[in-house]
Each structure stands twice: as structure tokens, then as C-alpha cells.
Design a protein that fits this description.
It contains 10 helices and 10 strands. It is α+β, with helices and mostly antiparallel strands and 298 residues long. It folds into 2 domains: 172 residues, tt1808, chain A, CATH 3.90.1570.30; 113 residues. α1 runs antiparallel to α3.
Length: 298
């Protein structure tokens, strides 16, 4: 392993006020935790990822959260090994985030999880409620010795399979999802056949009914909107293969309540994740016919 890593981490122990600042979580993530995991043997290019995105549908205990991201994960396309939640250096409130890191661990089905402020490490196994260790260290050698047998790659050798479709692709796409991503409409960018079929169907509808509806792209989703009011008939996240509820927009569009109700019942049944693209497309075609009626939104 590169010998300079221990020196960098130890300098943070010695002069944390200069190297890490006051309450900067990012400095602790990068200068201490990322380098520590690298020193333990994780591949910094192929296995370690920052701000690994988790869709809100997986956050069962925090349903109001728009999205979530684990600070650092050890993962690859085959599965997940470890999730880490990092607080600022020597934070006295570390234990307050236990529920947060355990929810990330459950959402990703990670074998191990760690909660750390750089000096104190609380490490969990997914099968046990109590932590495997909860220890505070005074220098880098003591820390590496204390955690290597719990979260080193020689210990977590087999990853857990991701519990939902496109999890790895979604996780590492965090930065791209901050602005509209036109490539979300490209069906060849996905391996799931239902996703390909559905995107093709939505695109075809937008072309066939271009006078009534238009395509739109959000930060992480695609949608079909009516041209008159700009309201959504459908919103779809192809990375998670999930259809988002659009009750409010349907009300504004005066789509018959029974039709909207049956559509939303269908997406609960087959739209999360999407299993029957043609059935959903059939609903959309019926909605479009409603939008063509002379009394639409008068």
C-alpha cells in the first residue's frame, strides 16, 4: 500500500484544526475516511464511491426524504460491501446518526456499515442490532489495527447483491442527476427490457400526439406533459424503473377522477418497479383522448 497514506491520515490526528477545519464533514470524508479505506486495501478507483445515491423509495423509515446518499461505499457492479456515514472530525454527536446509517445499510442490503467522525468508529453487521465495535482511537496505527478485522476487504470478501434494479448505475450517477440529463431518454442506456420498451413507447406517444403532449426531462426522471398547461400525465424514473404519482397534475388537467384513480392503482401494482409497460401506455393513450375533447380545461 502507498506509504504516504498513513502519513496524511496521521497529520490529521496531529493538527486536525489546520487540516480538517471546524465542522467540515467533507474534509473528514476525503482526508481521513476515504484514505483510511484505501489504506485498508479497498481499490480507490474500482471500489470506493462518494455520495452513493439511494432512491427515496428505499428510505422506508424516512418517506419524506426526497433522496439520500451514503457518504462513502465500497461497491462494484456485482454488489455492495460497505456503507459509511461520516460526521465532522471528533463530533460529539456521532451516535445520534445511528438510525441514519442503519437505514442506508438496510436500503442497500450492505453486509457492513460504519459510522465515524474519524476518531470514533461504530461498526455494524446487517444481522445484528448492536454494533460489532464502538471504539475511539488516538493515532492512525491504532485506528487501522482496530478496524481492519471488521471492514477490511480481506474480511468482507463477498458482496451482497443489490436489492433493486440499476442500483449501482443510480448510485454512481449522483452528480449527473443534479441537472437535466437528456440521455435518460436513450433506451440503449439501460439493460432492463421493460425500461427499454417503456421509454420507446413514451417517445413514440410524444411523436404521435405532438400537438397535445411533449417530452420533458428532469434531474433524474422523464415525463410527458400537456402542451396547454405544462402538467404531467406521467413521470418516470428509468434508473430505478419507478413511476411517480401525478395525482395533483391529473386534477389540474381535469382528467376524469375514475381514470386517474385506476391509473394510480395500476402503478402501485405494476409500476414500482414497472412490470407491464403496455398496460401503462394504454392508460396514457386513454388520457390523451380525454385531453383532445373540446371542453378540455375550459
Amino acid at each position: 500500500m502507498p506509504s504516504f497514506l498513513r502519513d496524511v491520515i496521521q497529520s490529521c490526528f496531529i493538527s486536525s484544526h489546520l487540516s480538517l477545519g471546524g465542522i467540515s464533514e467533507v474534509n473528514c470524508q476525503v482526508k481521513v475516511i476515504f484514505l483510511t479505506l484505501w489504506e485498508l486495501g479497498w481499490d480507490p478507483v474500482q471500489q470506493l464511491f462518494l455520495n452513493f445515491a439511494i432512491p427515496k423509495e428505499r428510505m422506508k423509515k424516512s418517506p419524506r426524504m426526497a433522496s439520500a446518499a451514503s457518504d462513502i461505499v465500497a461497491a462494484n457492479s456485482a454488489g455492495i460491501y460497505l456503507v459509511c456515514e461520516v460526521k465532522y472530525w471528533n463530533s460529539p454527536y456521532l451516535a445520534n446518526s445511528t438510525d441514519q446509517v442503519r437505514e442506508y445499510q438496510e436500503a442497500l442490503d450492505a453486509p457492513r456499515a460504519c459510522l465515524t467522525n474519524g476518531r470514533r468508529w461504530i461498526i455494524f453487521d446487517k444481522e445484528n442490532e448492536n454494533p460489532l465495535i464502538d471504539e475511539t482511537f488516538s493515532n492512525v496505527d491504532e485506528m487501522l489495527s482496530g478496524i481492519k478485522d471488521w471492514i477490511g476487504p480481506q474480511i468482507i470478501m463477498i458482496p451482497s447483491t443489490y436489492p433493486y434494479p440499476e442500483a449501482f448505475e443510480l448510485g454512481i450517477a449522483t452528480a449527473k442527476r443534479r441537472q437535466p440529463n437528456l440521455s435518460l431518454w436513450d433506451p440503449e442506456g439501460y439493460s432492463n427490457l421493460n425500461v427499454k420498451q417503456f421509454i420507446n413507447g413514451l417517445d413514440r406517444l410524444s411523436q404521435e400526439e405532438s400537438i397535445i403532449i411533449k417530452r420533458d426531462t428532469g434531474t433524474g426522471s422523464i415525463s410527458l406533459k400537456d402542451r396547454k398547461m405544462g402538467k404531467k400525465l406521467i413521470e418516470y424514473d428509468p434508473l430505478t424503473n419507478m413511476i411517480v404519482k401525478t395525482n395533483h397534475d391529473h386534477n389540474r388537467l381535469s382528467i376524469p377522477s375514475d381514470l386517474s384513480r385506476r391509473y394510480h392503482s395500476a402503478i402501485k401494482e405494476i409500476g414500482r418497479p414497472l412490470k407491464d409497460p403496455e398496460r401503462i401506455l394504454s392508460f396514457l393513450k386513454t388520457m390523451i383522448q380525454e385531453l383532445k375533447k373540446p371542453n378540455f380545461n375550459k
